[in-house]
Amino acid sequence: MLAQKKVYLAVALAGALVFGFIATSVISYFLASESVNDHIAEETLPLTSDNIYSEIEQDLLRSVLISSLMAHDTLLRDWTLDGEADPEKIVRYLREIQNKYDTTTAFYVSEKTRNYYHANGILKQVSADDAQDAWYFRARQLKTPYEINVDTDTADPSRLTIFLNYRVTDYQDRFIGVTGIGLSVDSVAKLIASYQTRYAREIYLTDREGRVTLRGPRFEGAENLRERAGMSQIATTILATPSASVSYENGAGRRVYVNSRLIPEFDWYLIVEQAQSSAEARVLGALLLNIGIAIAIAALVGAIGWVAVRNYQASLEQMAGTDPLTGCTTRRVFEAIFDQSRKNALRSHSPLSLLAIDIDHFKQINDEYGHAAGDLVLYTLADTCRTHLRDTDTLCRWGGDEFLILLGDCSLPNALRVADAIRAAVASRAIRPGTETVECTISVGAAEYEPGEELRSLVARADLAMYTAKREGRDQVAQA
């Protein structure tokens, strides 16, 4: 009878898989043969994104390199360290930077004097009380060398500018100021517009929060990914990963494909969108159909497999279970955990310790207060132990009123401190199964694992130490 069932299972699984493969292959063949030419011509969004990413890096990374050169220029650092004696010297330097690299602005703010040096002279002194100067005090606290922000130009408040704020440090790496350059937002927007014309895609950049930072003149819709029609559900996916290929349905009911990738140098995301074409719709239809068949096959195989493995479920639960009263690891599972912990300790040359805990006069508690009180004592002990253990430690109910604790990466002196903390906590904790209060103490033995030692030997040494603690008056900790 059992053999016959196995035959039925094998035939059913094989038949389902064969049917699925044949159906998927036939459907994919007819649809792919019809749309392959259009697909090759139009399904190039990831490649387009890579090309645009490379061009943006080439165009905008130049600004980072210029700011980096300024921040590490010995002329700028030495002039600052020498007391900023000749302001005209640094003004000429900034003017040369601005003219040579054709930037909108070039600046330097000194930490010592708070002077804002510009190609046109000293514009102002930055102040923590001025909201327009918040960028400088934010840059002071940066953990990275630079930041990019879009703000009004101090030299021309009517002009919106992309600033590269680069921290300047002295030769002992102490902060002495912020320097950098600015690019006109309009010029960068024209650059993006040229990309859009060349690649026939919607292209824009966002910050980590999804706010659109740079866009072309034909950009339409909300300027936040989470507020754009259809994108609210995929915005988190885009902003949570360095690169993503997703799609959404826009307000007009058209499928739009999105390819995003993080530009680390600017901490911005490049977003490239392409609306669905007729060929893409056919390919998508084939994909959805294949997925539907795959799901159906998976469901069928899963149902058949469930029947096959159901008989093993009971035995697996017994092996993997926990103690129902205390929630502690069972003895069988603890043995497996110890085996793995021992290997980890040997591989990393780290200590491994074991605590053996026994409740003092537990039989007397059961006799005097009843088994319900004894169960509460066991539960309370386990709960108290957990409050003093790490997530990586293992608490096991070894048998009766004896518990074991396995402490990974823990030497014997540290294990003794943990043991004494648990002992003191148990002794001070009031246990009230009813109107009466049960006083409970424990005796603890501690032992450190020795290379090559088996669990049985380690437990025996910890038990021996625990019995020593009992002989010496209970409510104590002893070491092996």
Task: Based on the coordinates given, report the CATH architecture of one domain.
Answer: 2-Layer Sandwich
Number of strands: 16
Distance from first to last alpha carbon: 57 Å
Compressed to H and E, one letter per element, the order equals HHHHEEEHEEEHEEHEEEHHEHHEEHEHE
The CATH class of one domain, by name, is Alpha Beta
Instruction: Provide the β-strand percentage band.
Output: 15-25%
For the largest beta sheet, what order do the strands appear in spatially?
Answer: 3-2-1-6-5-4
CATH fold-level assignment of one domain: Alpha-Beta Plaits
**Structural class by sheet pairing and helices:** alpha+beta
Give the CA-based shape. Answer: flat
How much helix, percentage-wise, in residues?
40-55%
Spans of at least 5 consecutive residues whose pLDDT stays below 50 are 36-41
**Could you tell me the radius of gyration in angstroms?**
35 Å
